[in-house]
Amino acid sequence: MDILPLAHHLMALAFLMLLLGSFISPFSDFESSDEPSNICNYERLSEVKRECNSFLSSASKLKLDIEKAYRMSYALSFRYGDWVQEAGTSPLMPFEDDMGKNFSDSGSLLKLVSFSIMDVDFSHLHEDEVRVCGYLSIGVTRNRTLSNHADDWSPSFWKEPGISELIIPFEGLYIETEGGRLMCFLGTSVSPFSEGFSDLLELPMAYSSDFYPQSPLLQDDRVMLVLRYPQTFSLTSRVIHGEMRNLNQNSNPKYFDKVYISSQLGYYSNYQFVSEKLILEACNPYPCRDGLIDGGIIKDSQFCKFFQGLSAEMFDIVGSSGCDGTEEHCYNLGPFVLGNELKRTNGIQDKFRIMMNNPHCIPGDKLSKLGSAKASAVFRVVSSQENLFIAEQRSGLSGMTLSAEGTWNFSSRLLCMVGCVGLAETGSDRCNSRICLYFPISLSITQRSIFVGTISSINNTDSHNLLSFRKVLRPPDVLNKYYDYSSSCLSYKYSKIESANILLKRNENFNLVTFMKKSLLKYPCVEDTNNITSLSQLSDELSFDTSGLPNPLPNAHPPKVYVTMEILSLGSLLGRHWSFRDFSHKEESKILTNSDSTKRGQLLNISAHFTLSGESYVHISVLYLEGLYNPLLGRAFLIGCRDIPLSQGPMNITNLESRMDCLIEAKVEYSSKTTRWLINPTARISITSQRDVEDALYFSPISIQTFLIPYSDNSKEFIFRQNFEESFRMLVLSASIACILCQLFFMEKKVDAIPFISLTMLGVQAPGYVLPLVTDGAILFKWKKFQYSDNLLDSGKTMWLQVFDCTLKFLSLTAFVLTLRLCQKVTKARLKLCTSPPRNLRQIPSDKLVFLSSWTVHIVGFVAVHFIHLKKTADGIISTDHKLSEWVTDIDEYMGLVQDFFLLPQIISNVLWQTHVKPLRELYYIGLTLLRLLVRAYDSIRDPVLNPYLHKGDNNRSSVFFSKSEDIIKMTILVVLAVTVHVQQGNFNKALVK
Question: Which helix (H) or strand (E) holds 321?
Fold first, then answer.
């Protein structure tokens, strides 16, 4: 009897264990996903010992514990090292370039290699060796990344145009010697070449790769890899050397020539600052005071945080001393050793940049010397064609790299480093470069760099020309990466305010238009003079990033330009103020106290970073602006400076400031905030050179009108437009009803003229009043929007909008009923005319021919409009509703034209019937025409409503069907039709008098 309950308990226990196991297993997999896993069987250990015997014989006793062995698996892995192959006849892999034969930039063609430790056998920590396994990813790439990990523990080869990659798994032994650390492996690869085999399918060792299915690949387990690591990580002891060779005979088809690998220790290795002697030779006495720029007061802890934040930053090469564009040394980059192909590149300094990687820094509190810090980094020359993501992770050392170590001193406020080109393993033989790094605390129109550096020779032996580089601080950098550093250490010094004030007085003359703008219109300004957040918000309003067109347009198809204006400082505020960031009240009040431009309407000091793209603006693509902003008129008057390209050659030109052309004036005019509910904000930019026409740096005046500038919140303008348009519709409908009533009263007096009113004219007007009621569409005119603005209308209607909606429907129904009343009177009058003697059927008005004539004209017009619309859609000028066909959309839009041209049937009927009476009252047809003109004018003036959160600039097409020029044509036709009817009826009156 006790067996059954026991069975129940056992079943419940088994179920709980199964449930617990299924719950824990995903977490255990996750926790161990980043750790080396036991995926190696170490089946070739005896073979490894035999082939690696010459290396293992020099092994010393290991001093490894579990923790050190665990860290070792990460410290010995590397990513994106370099490799070269010994000259021979057996290449490692094929490569198919994707850039064509005429592509000459070899700087972007990279031979990269990565190695990852997959397992360290902790259970067999012998006295002199440890079993390890990993995989090697080696390839040639034009600008594409290699694999981060192997899909499984098997070799593979992958080849596509622009990239070839070979993945080889290895297993072997780790040892330590007196000279360093070493790992010797044997691996299994696949041969990418199939030459020499008549039929690979018949070979027992044939191996087919999923990535290379053209033919089966031959498997090769005779690949040996030796990696040598330094025992310590320092300036001259950091290089990882590797050698991979094939153990087969040269005649074997699987054989390849020897491959040499180089990389360096990285993040998981402890850097040791032991190069004091080299630093002393380079930096004592301190040589870096050459007047380039003043350093700033930075605390040692701040310095290390900022210095390490420069990792993977790209620095622009500013210049090379003595380079005049003609001498041979202008084709060198300081100490960096460029290949012959790269040396032949024109404008070499404009096509390369410098990247800093692998930074290490120790502040003074760890050195027992307050106010100083030690820093180390690797500077790498990067081609402009190279993938920046790849360049950031590269670890190979070559003539294009400079390993550096130095000391930052609080008193001198500068960083001096000694640099070693290439592998840097020969002590001071290759360490003949001095790197001086400057960290300014003030910015100006000619100094926008957060980081300035120079590389020079220490002595005359193997000397090189001085190389200067910098990191220009752009406003987004102040907001993001360097926010803390900028807010605590940087400020802006205005130096062109007097020149900007002269420009302002020359362009602003007081007149009636200026007075009206100041009185009626409101432009972006400081709303709250006692809150620094207002200055930050104004900086956002004055910044824009959009497209534009030359003004005036030079031809029918002018090229678009891309314009960016980023506000760097406004008053004493540098960058932006974020309330959620760490920003003390003391600093905030300091900025407000020092600001001379916080009163509303007072001129504001302003600086900006301006970029202009387009083939016609290469000479002025980047401008550093500084000047004054007038918030009462929304105008900024600015002085601009631009860099002179190094490739431009010798500069025998006067009036240069720090090799910059600052004889440039710029004016930016912003649109009014008052009219934003109707017209989207834009900006007008004009740039002129103050140099003589004969000057080499002179350029023609530039004038650009931007497209709309999306701003953060348009909810107020959106609601105002909704209310205004509903009220406007009510006004137009009420006036239309008044015009129809006037015509009804006129018909009571002019009974004989009633039959000569065209029923086609009345029938054209009636659907415009009733169709919106049936389809729940817009009355009179549609809502004008961009492609991504639909969700703004989905928020629902307020109570007032619902009241407006009901009123509009009532008015529209009233106008429709009154129009039907007009039709009824005309029909009755014609029937009465038919029955009254004497009857002459030919003289009785009939709308058949009028209807056919009118719709013939409209069919021709519709075909023309349809083809114009198709062309606009193909050119991307307007968007289409994909739910509807092109024909339906065009018919819907053209029906509005038919209603606008409501007088066309009356004109035709007057001609056909030879009318000698006055059928329409002036107030009726002129009033309705004026109302139609008013609607079309408003529709032409107003801009589409944008959604600031989803607007995508040029790619966001609007729902506008007719352009502004086409709207003008329509309004002109409206006026012509009304004048024609007026002339016809005037002639009728003259005929009656005669």
Answer: none
d(CA 452, CA 160): 41
| b/e code 238-260 from CB counts within 10 Å (16+ = b) | bbbbbebbbebeeeeebbbeebe
Q: C-alpha dihedral over 515, 519, 524, 527, to 10 degrees? A: 130
What's the predicted TM-score (pTM) here? Answer: 0.77
Count the neighbouring beta carbons within 10 Å of the beta carbon of residue 798: 12
pLDDT band of residue 913 (cuts 50, 70, 90) is: confident
User: What span, in angstroms and rounded, lies between the C-alpha atoms of 477 and 471?
Assistant: 11
Q: What is the DSSP letter of 602?
A: S
Burial 97-128 (b: 16+ CB within 10 A, else e): eebeeeeebebbbbbbbbbbbbbbbbeebeee
Predicted local distance difference test score (pLDDT) of residue 845: 82
241 in Cβ contact with 262 (< 8 Å): yes
HEC string of 505-527 equals HHHCCCCHHHHHHHHHCCCCCCC
Cα–Cα distances (Å) from 221 to 116, 224, 245, 304, 760, in that order, read: 19, 9, 12, 48, 92
How many residues are recorded in the chain? 994
Residues 174, 132: contact at Cβ < 8 Å?
A: yes
Cis peptide before 838 (omega within 30 of 0): yes
Residue of 208 and 254 predicted with greater confidence: 254
The SS3 call for residue 31 is helix
**pLDDT score at 424:** 56
- How many other C-beta atoms can be found within 10 angstroms of the C-beta atom of residue 857? 15
Our separate counts of H helices and E strands in the chain read: 23, 29
